[in-house]
Amino acid sequence: MRTGLFAHPACFNHVTPPGHPERVDRLRAVLDALNALPSLDRREAPPAERDSLIRAHDRQLVEGILSATIGPDDFERIDADTTMSAGSGEAALRAAGAVIAAVDAVMAGQMDNAFCAVRPPGHHAERQRAMGFCLFNSIAIGALHARAVHGLKRVAVVDFDVHHGNGTQDIFFDDPGLFYASTHQFPLYPGTGLASERGVAGNIVNVPLPPGAGGTAFRSVFEEQILPALEIFEPQFIFISAGFDAHEADPLAALRLQVEDFEWATQQLCLLAKRVCGGRVVSALEGGYDLESLARSTVAHVRALACGGEG
After folding, report:
1. Are the C-beta atoms of 135 and 120 separated by less than 8 Å?
2. Are strands 83-84 and 76-77 parallel, antiparallel or unpaired?
3. Would you list the DSSP string of 27-48?
């Protein structure tokens, strides 16, 4: 398998206030750990074009983020959890651009799949609102790019971040050609993700897990609900919102997953992708706030991508 790694130094320039959990050290830990996988096809993420952003977001949101003028030592607060610094606009452009470039590379046959090591994360960003540490919804932008530029009809996102990806759900909800599945802790921020939230054509599959649930429950809902629904949908491309904050060591939630659970989920998605869409998978980093478990989980996830789901 040929697996790409897309990143850019600009993602280090999205600086958050002292004590904020979504910090520069997260990306540094991930990239340092991925040095253990020298066979990856490493590429620099280009900036996303504004037209690509506007497929997923209202123009007013896009222009507001990109036109923000922020001093070198200042922060602009979007909500209680979400801030911008002077480098945030370019970081968000590179994060979205990484997913777009990964899609293009996979569709061109240059690689089989790819991981985007980027920040800020994206899955909380709704069509009209940045929130939850997120500015632009990079995964949704990449999925819509796959349809608009490469002519795909059905694309899917699977999200195993501990928080529900309300932004991706918001963008996908009314389009039967877009599929979103999420397993997440509930109750927890952002308060969405009930099983009753089904989308315009049953294209949304939410499987909330209670606090304290571990790998057995996670694997069960994957096998019994998420993977069967995904296979029925028959996606032509699978995206993964790869958040690792469901690990038991993470400070922001209370699920009890282990590194092996993320690896297993990735393997299952890669094997399904081989059956239904030629193995086409692009993954992007979302959450994960304990640096050690984040690094180890990311390596296991990318190693599973590089093995194409095989052990």
Report:
1. yes
2. antiparallel
3. HHHHHHHHTT-TTSEEEEPPPP
Contacts of 217 (CB under 8 A, 6+ apart): 209
Please confirm, yes or no, whether 124 is among the known catalytic residues: yes
Q: Report the alpha-carbon angle 216-222-226, nearest 5.
A: 160
**What mean pLDDT is predicted for residues 226-244?**
98
This prediction has a pTM of 0.98
**What is the C-alpha separation between 119 and 7, in angstroms, rounded?**
9
Taking only the tens place, the pLDDT of each residue in 193-204 is: 999 999 999 999
What does the CA dihedral 243, 229, 192, 259 come to, rounded to 10 degrees? -20
Exposure string of 77-110, with b = 16+ CB inside 10 Å and e = fewer, is ebeebbbbbbbbbbbbbbbbbbbbbbbbbbbeee
Q: What is the Cα–Cα distance from 117 to 104, expressed in whole angstroms? A: 17
Q: Which of 14, 57, 123, 124 is catalytic?
A: 124
Per-residue 3-state assignment (H helix, E strand, C coil) for 105-141: HHHCCCCCEEEECCCCCCCCCCCCCCECCECCCHHHH
Alpha carbon separation from 296 to 2, 35, 86, 94, 288 (Å, rounded): 21, 12, 30, 24, 11
Whole-angstrom distance between the N-terminal and C-terminal Cα of the chain? 13
| Percent of residues in the chain assigned helix, strand, coil, to nearest 5 | 40, 15, 45
Q: Are 234 and 154 in contact (CB under 8 A)?
A: yes
Residues in the chain: 311
Calpha distance 10→171 (Å, rounded)? 26
* CA 116/CA 98 separation, integer angstroms: 6
The residue-averaged pLDDT of 268-280 equals 98
